[in-house]
Every structure is written in structure tokens, then in C-alpha cells.
């Protein structure tokens, strides 16, 4: 059988650049190489695109940008061209392993659509909707999906005072950028004196200068991996245990003062309800192929949606692959399924 020529895209102009390198390295080590001819495509922090031919270890440790193994490319319909040699490299499918700006917001998905290259994961619409937490909340409101109360602050408007916010949403609050991930710029605020500094820091991480103020949920966080397009399946529900109020970068990627339980330590009825809610969210936000839906269970036992990640962390031990593994889908097989979904979708179009 002829191999599928798969472009694996990593790096990117994002604060989550380093997360992408680790995820991409894990995928490259786990992918079924007998099925794919892998073409590694790196994006620098400055936005340059390169065909990378070096080692996975150098990629993971950010030593991939060198003249010997990284050649600049230009995109053309159906693939790319190495600028120095004019060699055309066609691509059957691309797997973007990019987090944050230009990776999860629909930018790379739109580019690949214009190039006629099937793309794994959510398309432009679903990616953009899920990336912008204000838009996401508005759709939740329309679809009666339970979530925390919120206010969106726009950088061009006069800043609401802490007293004005408190009249609408009682303390404590979570303050976060509308368009960022990996908990960058997220603050737990339990007194009004911290408000302005937390908002200013959140604005630094949002290119569109929008910041969300959400009412803090008294409870614990769970997640659900959703996989599919016309028919949806879910992984096992997982549960996050953390010492602090925020599952921050160190907690997510170094497991500092944090633990993840999969399956979650909840009753089957609650787990089943969370899976059904996750699938509803997936549909409402126009997702396809994969997404991780993050939720809370509050002190009353109610399930509320927090946010949706369209390109979640993707190492073999990351939450999305771990949830799918707990449901019986091994990491390499998960990658196969996602690529099949992308290519079938394009054929149907």
C-alpha cells in the first residue's frame, strides 16, 4: 500500500511554542511509520516556515533551526516548495500540532483549506469559535449550556471598575485572556485590590485585547475527549486535583502540586452526563475530528462547561490521549483515526 504523505506542523508564533515541540515529538515517536511518509514542517517564533529533516530529539529541545536540517519553504496548492532547490513536495494531509495563536484560532486551518490539503482537527470556523472565549460564551448562552457567569472587557473601552464588576458577578473571579491557552495570563482574584493588575496582565496575552472576567466555580475540574464527525465517541472522563486555584502551566506540564485521575472519581451517572454534555458542546461550537471539553462539577453536583481545546496537549501522556487510551484507543491508533477522519471529510466534499 502506498504511504500517506503526512505533513506534521509544529512550533508557531505563540506563547505555547515549547508545548508544541513536546507534543510534536511525542506524535512523531508514536506514529505508525509503516503507514506514513512523514514530512516535518516547522514554524519559527518569527513566522518562518521550514522543511525540517533532522532528529526528533533536536526538534523537541528546540535545536531544529539550523541551515543543515531546516530549509525555507513556500506553500503551493497541494503542497510546498523548497525555496533553495525548487523541489515540489506534495502533501496528502497535514496534522497541525500548534497551540494558541495561528494554530488553534483557524489561521493554519484556513491556509490549508486554500491549498487544498486535508487538515486534521477542527476547521476554520470551529477553531475560531472555540479560541475566542467571549464568542464561545455567547453560543453557550444561546444553546442553554451551563457555564460560569462572565463579563468581557475590551481594550478600547474604558476599564470597568472592580466595584462595577462586583455588582454583576460576586467575588471571587477568574480573569483570563479571551484568546490564549496553557493558563497564560490567567489569574484567580479574591479581592478587588488585585483586579486591575490581573486584567493588565491578561491583556498582554490577548492579541485582540479582550479579557474575560468569570465567576469562580466552587468545585473541581473534569475533562472529556470527544472524537469524530458525524458519529461522536468520547474517552473516559478525567479529573484534576490541584493544590491551588489555577491549573497553571507548571501544573499542566510538570504536574507540580497537581494530579490527574482517569477515570475520574465520580459516579457513572455523573460521568455519562458529562460525556453527553461534552458532545452537545462539540456540536454547538462547530467542532470536528477532535476536541477536549473542560468542565467543572460544583458543590451542588452540577456540571458547568469551562472551555474547549481544539488542539489539546498531544503527548502520549497528555489528557486527551490518556482519556482515549482509558477508553481503549492506543495513541498510535488515535493518530490513525484522526488522519482518516480528515481525509474522508475532504473526499466527501
The helix count comes to 11
Quaternary state of this entry equals single chain
Number of domains: 3
Distance between the termini: 24 Å
Spatial sequence of strands, sheet with the most strands? 6-5-4-3-2-1-7
What is the global morphology? globular
CATH class of the largest domain: Alpha Beta
CATH superfamily of the largest domain: ATP-grasp fold, B domain
The overall strand count is: 17
Give the overall average pLDDT.
Answer: 93
Secondary-structure class: alpha+beta
CATH architecture of the largest domain: 2-Layer Sandwich
Q: What's the Cα radius of gyration?
A: 20 Å
H-E string: EHEEHEEEEHHHEHEEHEEEEHEHEEHH
Q: Per CATH, what is the topology of the largest domain?
A: D-amino Acid Aminotransferase, Chain A, domain 1
Spans where pLDDT lies below 50 across 5 or more residues: 247-255
The proportion of residues in beta strands is 25-35%
Largest sheet: 7 strands, mixed
Please give the share of residues in helix: 25-40%
Describe this structure in words.
With 349 residues, the chain is an alpha+beta fold. The protein has 3 domains: 4-119, Rossmann fold (3-Layer(aba) Sandwich), CATH 3.40.50; 149-215, 2-Layer Sandwich (Dna Ligase, domain 1); 218-329 and 337-348, ATP-grasp fold, B domain (D-amino Acid Aminotransferase, Chain A, domain 1, 2-Layer Sandwich). The protein contains 11 helices and 17 strands. It has helices spanning 17-30, 56-60, 107-115, 124-131, 133-143, 162-168, 195-204, 249-254, 268-284, 319-326, 331-348; strands spanning 4-11, 36-43, 49-52, 70-76, 79-82, 88-90, 93-96, 150-154, 173-177, 187-189, 210-215, 219-228, 232-234, 238-242, 258-261, 289-298, 303-309. The strands form 3 sheets. It has a 7-stranded mixed beta sheet with strand order 6-5-4-3-2-1-7, with helices on both faces. Strands 12, 13, 14, 15, 16 and 17 form a 6-stranded antiparallel beta sheet that branches. A 4-stranded antiparallel beta sheet has the order 8-11-9-10, sandwiched between helices. β2 (36-43) and β3 form a beta hairpin. The model is unreliable at 247-255 (pLDDT under 50).
